[in-house]
Amino acid sequence: MKNRKSFFSRGKKTYAIVGDGDCEKWYFQLLKDKEQLTINIQPQLLKKATLAKQYEYVKELAKTFDRVFWIVDYDVIDRETKECKKGEEKRSLEFVRYYKELASIENVKILVVNTCFEYWLYLHFKYSKKNYKDCDEIGKDLKKEFPAYEKTEKFYKKNNSDIYSTLKPKLSTAISNAAKLGDFDMKNPGNPVCEIHKLFNEDGSFKED
User: Which Pfam families does its entry note (predicted)?
Assistant: First the structure.
């Protein structure tokens, strides 16, 4: 899996966001720029980072940042679980182990999205509990609501119509729809869930607590 790191500060507090995709990075860069937050984002690509390496990375960041958020696209874990060889620990069980261990670190928060980041974008338009099989499937539904959408940096950061600014009027809807899905359930990890809303207050402002 790829791994992306973004870290930023607001006032005296520092925050780190760890994700495994470009979309998250572009989105939160735009959040910083458009909301004029005092944020310094320094993305770092860790090529082919395993789940274990991401876990260790989050633990390391927790030593120096006030808050660390690990955004996990569960479709990747599900796919890698199916690809595990006989005798290997299933990726889903490995993740549950890390999830429980990180729960004991007060300044770490895991935000699970099943399936992937595009689900968060889709929730700006409609509420859905559909159990998407992969990111491509949710992408097709997103295109129905947002025909211009492209999964490219050029599209995300398009002048005068970047994706964050375009969707901001619908941010409260996304927060509400995502909240209705509830929390990640380790006993039923395949359930649709999108916990990115926990980064925001109900009015769409970024949480600082």
Answer: RloB
Does residue 205 belong to any structural domain of this protein? no
Q: Which residue range forms the structural domain that includes residue 101?
A: 4-199
Assess if residue 209 is contained within a domain: no
Q: Taking Cα atoms as reference points, which of 7, 71, 3, 64 lies closest to residue 41?
A: 7
What token pair was written down for 167? Answer: 């969707």
Pick from 1-15, 43-57, 157-171, 175-189: least confident: 1-15
In tens, the pLDDT along 110-145 reads: 999 999 999 999 999 999 999 999 999 999 999 999
> What span, in angstroms and rounded, lies between the C-alpha atoms of 28 and 35?
10
User: Do residues 102 and 52 make contact, with C-beta atoms less than 8 angstroms apart?
Assistant: no
Q: In the structure encoding, which two tokens stand for residue 63, read together? A: 């030593």
Give the span between the Cα atoms of 17 and 28, in whole angstroms. 9
Q: Each residue of 11-63: pLDDT tens digit?
A: 567 788 888 788 988 998 898 888 877 654 444 445 567 899 889 999 998 99
Q: What is the pTM of this model?
A: 0.90
Any domain includes 110: yes
Domain count along the chain:
1
